[in-house]
Amino acid sequence: MSNLLRCLIGGLCLLLLCRQGAAQIAPLIANINARQTTDLDGQWQTIVDPYDVGFLDYRAHPLKNNGAFYKNYKPQSKADFVEYDFDTAGQLSVPGDWNTQRESLLFYEGTVWYKRSFDYAKSPKKRVFLHFGAANYLAYVYLNGEELGHHEGGFTPFDFEVTDRLQTKGNFVILRVNNTRAKENVPTINTDWWNYGGITRPVTLVEVPDTFIQDYSVQLEKGSTRQIRGWLQLNGAQLRQSVTIRIPEAGVSKTLQTGISGRVEFSFDADLKLWSPENPQLYTVNISSETDQVTDQIGFRSIAVRGIDILLNGKPLFLRGISVHEEAPMRSGRAWKDDDARMLLSWAKELGCNFVRLAHYPHNEAMLRVADQMGVLVWEEVPVYWTIQWENPETLRNAQSQLNELITRDHNRAALIIYSVANETPVSDARNRFLSQLIQQAHSSDPTRLVSAALQAHETEHGNRLSIRIDDPIASELDVMGNNEYIGWYNHRISDLDVTDWTSKYDKPLIMSEFGADALFGRHGDSETRWTEEYQESLYEHQIAMLRRIPFLRGTSPWILKDFRSPRRTLPVIEDYFNRKGLVSEHGEKKKAFFVLQKFYRESQIAQTP
Ligand code: GCB
To answer: Is 601 near ligand 1, meaning CB less than 6 Å away?
Structure first.
């Protein structure tokens, strides 16, 4: 085959790896923290632009002249008309949501422009990528007055190659970040969480060699506890190379050859100490090619389902979980750093958890890294929440792209065992088709993990008993069924939990992915008085008694670890725009129900210890 043909095929494969519809966006680079990076975090100049005057002219056409804010144009004479100025505008911290940094922005939904200047001395023969951990929701990115591209979806990473656009001095990067809700978006306009806007995760310049290791998977083969199966993808001009995978502590060293598209797949045996919540063993894995090398910390464990059981490393397991929103533990706003992850997961551990459900969208990467280190199993989720536009192909493409970015970022994390593709979505043919495509995508992109969704079962009354049957057509395609129920809060009374029976049409494990009740920390009363710690405590007691009677239950993740902000929650004094179903208040105070769940988990742990 001629070299020209090889290059063409290689180039085509790389193009296919780029996400559809966002051609300017570069393929994601795995494990950027192990790369040579320059962080662009800190104070950025910002302009709040509710009418998008820096983006559209008064006829709503895109601005191309010097009035466009991304040009960062400065008056050339005293008569020059320029109606914006980043240099004298206010600042916001990056990473960070804008809502909790400035009182006037708490409820703000619209555009904020961000600008940051930097110098950059690029090493010869290196390529540079501008990487964003996340920006909610829509981000247009410009460098030195030119558009790099845009990204949709508020919770996943994206990057742009800037190798040929960087100057040694005086670069400026500008973003238009817009968090306006829209029906066709993912999520759609209606949610029960705060629509935090801004550049909510770190911004980094990543420097890599001309041909670099773009991504790799080093994981145990599904169902195996000793066979490693994986692949590696190079990016650049020199796509055929010899590459080596080394795990020194396990005595592994394998040298392989990439094909014309820069990819190689591999499979070999290794004698490994398996990762588990009790022993979160991580191995240093060195991956090198002729032009590049990268080191990761990877744990090896197997996760599978057999009938109604979930098997971790071949042994049945009960997932003692808790649902978590991505809100900082002891300050306001979005969580994004290691310390946040460590504190949230420490609370989960104190509860006795071996599992967390990261609801309702992809959380930051630090959460996964810290879960790997602390030994906490993870359910990750895409924001296909409530009523998405099931018939809209653009909405599906958007959900697929967010799922793809999530899988690409986290597919080497041992902690991650479940991808959830939806939360409380009403059954219809269009919804079933939509979810079916996401389920297939998750299974084919990452065959080593389980796929779930938080469903809602419906009940019938039989005399004085309540009967609930899990019978959702999409469940037949899931590995694990999730189910949310609010018996004793949104429907029925707490005492009805004592007469509720569960059945399922499917021979599959169930995780009760939500139940709960709101309680304001420090508000007391009897167990029938709403909003009190005693009501919440009683609901947990009766829920747990009911859960113990579900034969196919293999996990729980009650709603929720900590009180979180939600614009739906308007009740003065009690809610004040917080969902109060937390077991911990927004200030870290533990409510009575915390200790009820802790007791249940301690008992389950003892029952499970061999
Ligand atoms: C649910 C949703 C969750 C809400 C929760 C609630 O069913 O999945 O996002 O926050 O109920 O508190 O109502």
So the answer is: no
